[in-house]
Write a structure and sequence with these properties.
By secondary structure, the chain is an alpha/beta fold. The chain has ten helices and 14 strands. Helices cover about 40% and strands about 25% of the residues. GO terms for molecular function: DNA binding; DNA-binding transcription factor activity.
Amino acid sequence: MNIEHLKLFVRLASTNNISAAGAELGLSPAVSSAHINKLEESMGVRLVHRTTRKVSLTEEGIAFLPHAEDVLASVEAACASVGAGTTSPRGTLRITAPASFGRMHLIPGLKGFLEEYPDLSLDLRLSDSIVDLVEGGFDIAIRNAELKDSSLIARKLAPDNRMLCASPSYIAENGRPETLKELSSHSFVQLPSLEQLVFRTPSGLESIKVKSLLRTDNGEAVRDACIEGIGISVCSNWAVHEQLERGELVRILENYPLESDTAIWAVYPSSRQLAPKVRAFIDYFAQRFENMRCWGESS
């Protein structure tokens, strides 16, 4: 089985386009098509559906994909273990990340990352929706939600400390809540999943259901609406530390911290060995985030 054919097949699974996948590997469309034909001949099955507009994997191709990825990761790891092959990660690294976090904290670090690893190129997709890593062909995902899929491995990159915030204009108009019970009379700007808040109190955990005047699925939109005085918000320190320093937002109910074990995670499929390009990305940004002040201290 030809390793170059496998590389092309894995990239084809991500792009659904033989020419685009081949271009990433420096192959012409004709050579790329021939490589896929030879891979199918060696396997004795059809791996790819072809139409005039696009290609897609057959059922056999879908079943074969994770094994092909494992083979490539094993070869790359074996070469790295003895100093053979390339001395630095290369190829295309496909990443998915939450939109707000990606814009605020990944993109500012990408120039330095690419300068350190000049043989890498990046395909970064920013979305607040949770995507399937294998189905989407991603090497790594950045997430701030609890990891529930046992087929994934997660490495913590940074804490995700959250707090209640409001703008000075909102407090001037509506008053500043001093107790948890007072929250029921206030309006909130929230992510859809945060209408039930749990606080740590001297007598134990206390759950409060809040009234959302505005719900949105984008963290920056939540922050900006909070600054405009629409309501109180649950905000991550990494998203609002500058606004807190400038006085555009203030923390409220600091003596009642939110009960949360959220963090920023780098996630990758457990079926794959940790490829050098994935390890390089995780190590680089873990170090970068460790040196930044925006995460806040744990409550």
